Amino acid sequence: MDCIFCKIVSGEIPSVKVYEDDRVLAFMDINPINEGHLLIIPKAHAATIHEIAEGDFLAVMSATRKLSAAVKKTLNPDGINLLQLNGKAANQVVPHLHVHIVPRWFGDGLTISQWEMVAGNMEKIKAIAEKIQREIVN
Ligand code: 5GP
Ligand code: ZN
């Protein structure tokens, strides 16, 4: 398959690896938005949250927790953003699921995770909540 991250898994494209297990690979982002910016991916190709197998997703999240601890020990950031984008409308560029670990420092000037707080219409909020609740599959 013509997927950049599958090629990183196979070694066809080089990467700076930081962690690997049977299901997961983590490597440094080639265009870091802050020092320590890294990516965690499933080894099995899945484009988004809608395609990935539950076990692979849990493995990615478990590795994300482990790596966040290692990043905190190494770089002692003031905070960490975890980002995981699904679909072009959400600004996903590489269609192989990945979690970004972005270390954050006060005054680093990044604007990710900043949005304007505008109170919503409670009737609309409740109506959408009810529709979502009806679609939850256990
Ligand atoms: P997203 O799809 O969430 O918008 O982000 C894709 C991320 O993958 C970007 O942060 C980009 O810098 C990173 N990226 C794209 N191609 C490569 C690559 O070949 N190697 C590495 N290490 N990172 C990549
Ligand atoms: Zn892939």
Note down, in words, how this protein is organized.
The protein has 138 residues and is of the alpha+beta class. The chain has a single domain, classed as HIT family, subunit A (2-Layer Sandwich). It contains three helices and five strands; from the N terminus they run αβββαββα. Strands 1-2-3-5-4 form a five-stranded antiparallel β-sheet, covered by helices on one side. Strand 1 (17-20) and strand 2 (24-28) form a beta hairpin. The mean pLDDT is 97. The protein binds guanosine-5'-monophosphate and zinc ion. Guanosine-5'-monophosphate binds next to strand 2.
Keywords:
3 helices, 30% helix, 5 strands, binds zinc ion, binds guanosine-5'-monophosphate, single chain, HIT family, subunit A, five-stranded antiparallel sheet, globular, 138 residues, alpha+beta, 18% strand
* Class derived from helix and strand content: alpha+beta
CATH architecture descriptor: 2-Layer Sandwich
User: What is the strand arrangement across the widest sheet?
Assistant: 1-2-3-5-4
CATH superfamily: HIT-like
How is the CATH topology named?
A: HIT family, subunit A
| Number of E strands | 5
Q: Strand-residue fraction?
A: 15-25%
Largest sheet: 5 strands, antiparallel
Structure ligands = guanosine-5'-monophosphate, zinc ion
Regions with little confidence, pLDDT below 50 for 5+ residues: none
Compute the gyration radius: what is it? 17 Å
Mean pLDDT: 97
Domain count, please report it: 1
CATH class: Alpha Beta
- Quickly count the helices: 3
General form: globular
- Termini separation comes to 32 Å
Please give the share of residues in helix.
Answer: 25-40%
Order of helices and strands: HEEEHEEH
